[in-house]
Write a sequence for this structure.
């Protein structure tokens, strides 16, 4: 069992151990009936005292997560979820390298009526009929597209279309400096597996995209959070931090940041790039939302300023046109890109050719007009959601209006227990993203993230109103 | 720059370093004009003497790969391939964790006339028109399939179909114990990132699937090769090896092994499972070919014998019905599977729903009849290829007839230099897989792998004949 122990934090060691185990148990990663390692074994493997592990187990037993008996050891408590089988006896002790066991990861979005947790765009707003027609034509006229592996770097024609697309956004480079990945998540994963290893320092905004945190943590990186203000990542803080620990990589979502919504100012974009140059490190610029602005178009991407290949820029087309096609574009240069292409080959032998060709004509010819319409539609929804919040959000709940993107980032009063709220909401078939999963480590968070674009509009407004009512009655019950 | 140094092998340290760098340069992972780290820096980072690095650089300069000048340092030699830019100055020194720099990985299969290196089935033999019709219907009738994320574990209906499919092959389990991945490569990658870390011991057949070697090596595993004989992996040897180093994981392709073609006997399947039970370790059973037998159906999968969840079974549907749909099925149980699902979410947020639904009706209703026809067709090709080899293969070249699968595994005489042969073949637009990439570490190999099913039949026979003629004239030129 792999448990990250953080020494020198405010959280006592027994609690760190019991919290991690409790999370694994409630998320189903440790099955009912599984035998936990003995106190002696776990203490040895974590290099802590047996007393520490005993305290952690006692706490878990008190909370009903495990059952211990003299001589037999401790077992995950049975629940209605399932019965133990032969596998339980050895699997719980089989070490893994999973970074965190997140409740929301096991969340099946199809089963929730109001899935506010997932940052996505409702399918009615997406150009799926159009892309479907292209796909239908392709499979009829060129069925062999489904029968061949593409090249690892991505379809040459699509890369050419992406080149033109990026050029219109200030990024000028040849299509040989582009790679197609299965969504942004894979792009981040490829960078991490190629360039980040145990002990390497990765800086990122706090809070940040939970999928990126997972990936870097999974590589054993030392993730150092950098606070943000209205202009985005605090470069003054980052500069001081880098003095102490040289950066291997800086991960940023500079535009309509996920989850906070803030945008990195132009001056800071330049300074960030200078910092990367001076340290000879990479910036991963994750850009899912820059086309989804509500009033002003955001500053140009950091990549547009990059002369020496310090920026790996990842632009998602997944969220914005067809999540099911899983297409993102990665821009990099020189050896950095060649090594990413090698990693892509080991990861999945290249993205499917069919989906690449299916989105190609749309991106080439209709994307810009579509994006303009989408911006209007999203702004309308966001404003309706904000209006409703203004009317129904309980006192003590605050937020700022986003300038783009898909999310609202709400701050709850200090007395609210977000885990408890999550359980209450789940019972009403409402989901949200707890802010704590947007932080590396076990930092507490008073925030939650709600996506206003994932449902049909009336449904979203209904769900949001219900959630605010639930939040109101929960906060009242606390009398805070 | 990360270079794996193997101490205590027959290969001298300077040569290990120069070989790795040469491979990176010829494969394009180190671009022309890139500055190499200074002798002092590289020596320090590899913990070798400066003399060792100096020798390696001298060798590289002699071979024309780099150019060194007093005071300025060493640079990758310019070639026709490209010009250096600003990126070259720092990128070469930016550390990565790529396991190997493989020439063939950068191979663009679309540009080769006779791509014998790629184990695949020619699209004329695949049911692409059928799957295309389903896909066309789906995108017309349910375009929202392209607009939603599926669940991380894979589509419930497809898992139900897979359950029935596996049951007919001796594997009985509920669909909750199945997961859908983007091809076998991703399945192996998920197991590796979840359960294999630096220093963990992974046993596998030698030779084995190069994509699996890359993935385990990329996790920092200690890969220990196990020799094979006619009954597959030598369990007697494996048992002795496990005494010395406890296995974390055993990776095997028991049926029509890639690349050697051998099949693990039933008795050994049982013994392998017992071994895994006694060590509390996982077996990854990679099964791309068991439906592609020529005479007798092979022994049942190891997974069919598994009672306690020691086997993660990966069945590819990619190769056999539609590589472009990238569908494989992973069977596991208990905590092992839950942890793999968590890793899948961090890897790509789940496989696309559309491609899962597109293959579903075919697998449910037509797969078995199709597979019978495919076996006949493949056997016909294999026999024709074998006939041609018999007629044209030069003396000293040997092979055994495969009982199933897609590959021929040829052994060349000791005097042949396979790297040289590869270059000669490339000039004739013929590619093959050099045996050495099927070995972890830098083991020499006298084998090459040829796939007989990737091209249209007449084309394949023509290419094979040309290749044999080329091989013949090459061997004659050596006078060996």
């Amino acid at each position: 069992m792999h448990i990250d122990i953080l020494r020198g934090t405010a959280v006592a060691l027994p609690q760190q151990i019991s919290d991690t185990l409790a999370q694994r148990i409630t998320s189903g990663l440790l099955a009912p009936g599984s035998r936990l390692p003995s106190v002696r074994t776990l203490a040895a493997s974590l290099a802590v005292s047996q007393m520490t592990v005993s305290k952690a187990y006692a706490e878990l037993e008190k909370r009903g997560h495990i059952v211990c008996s003299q001589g037999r050891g401790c077992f995950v408590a049975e629940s209605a979820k399932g019965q133990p089988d032969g596998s339980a006896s050895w699997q719980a002790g089989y070490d893994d390298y999973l970074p965190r066991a997140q409740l929301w990861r096991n969340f099946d979005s199809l089963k929730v009526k109001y899935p506010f947790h997932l940052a996505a765009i409702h399918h009615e707003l997406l150009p799926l009929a159009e892309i479907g027609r292209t796909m239908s034509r392709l499979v009829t006229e060129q069925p062999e597209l489904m029968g061949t592996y593409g090249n690892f770097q991505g379809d040459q024609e699509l890369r050419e279309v992406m080149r033109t697309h990026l050029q219109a956004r200030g990024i000028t480079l040849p299509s040989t400096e582009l790679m197609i990945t299965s969504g942004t998540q894979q792009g981040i994963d490829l960078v991490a597996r190629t360039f980040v290893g145990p002990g390497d320092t990765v800086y990122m905004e706090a809070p940040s995209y939970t999928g990126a945190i997972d990936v870097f943590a999974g590589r054993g990186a030392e993730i150092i959070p950098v606070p943000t203000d209205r202009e985005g990542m605090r470069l003054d803080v980052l500069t001081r931090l880098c003095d102490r620990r040289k950066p291997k990589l800086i991960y940023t979502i500079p535009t309509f940041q996920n989850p906070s919504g803030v945008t990195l100012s132009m001056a800071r974009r330049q300074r960030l790039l200078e910092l990367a140059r001076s340290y000879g490190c990479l910036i991963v610029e994750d850009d899912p939302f820059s086309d989804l602005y509500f009033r002003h178009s955001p500053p140009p991407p950091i990549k547009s300023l990059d002369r020496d290949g310090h920026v790996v820029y990842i632009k998602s087309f997944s969220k914005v046109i067809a999540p099911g096609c899983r297409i993102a574009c990665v821009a990099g240069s020189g050896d950095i890109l060649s090594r990413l292409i090698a990693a892509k080959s080991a990861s999945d032998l290249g993205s499917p050719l069919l989906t690449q060709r299916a989105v190609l004509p749309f991106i080439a010819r209709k994307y810009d007009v579509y994006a303009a319409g989408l911006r209007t539609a999203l702004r309308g929804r966001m404003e309706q959601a904000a209006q409703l919040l203004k009317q129904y959000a309980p006192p003590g709940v605050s937020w700022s209006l986003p300038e783009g993107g898909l999310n609202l980032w709400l701050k709850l009063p200090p007395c609210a227990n977000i885990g408890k709220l999550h359980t209450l909401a789940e019972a009403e078939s409402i989901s949200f993203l707890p802010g704590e999963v947007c932080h590396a480590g076990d930092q507490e968070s008073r925030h939650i993230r709600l996506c206003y674009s994932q449902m049909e509009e009336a449904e979203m407004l209904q769900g949001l109103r219900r959630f605010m009512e639930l939040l109101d009655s929960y906060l009242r019950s606390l009398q805070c």
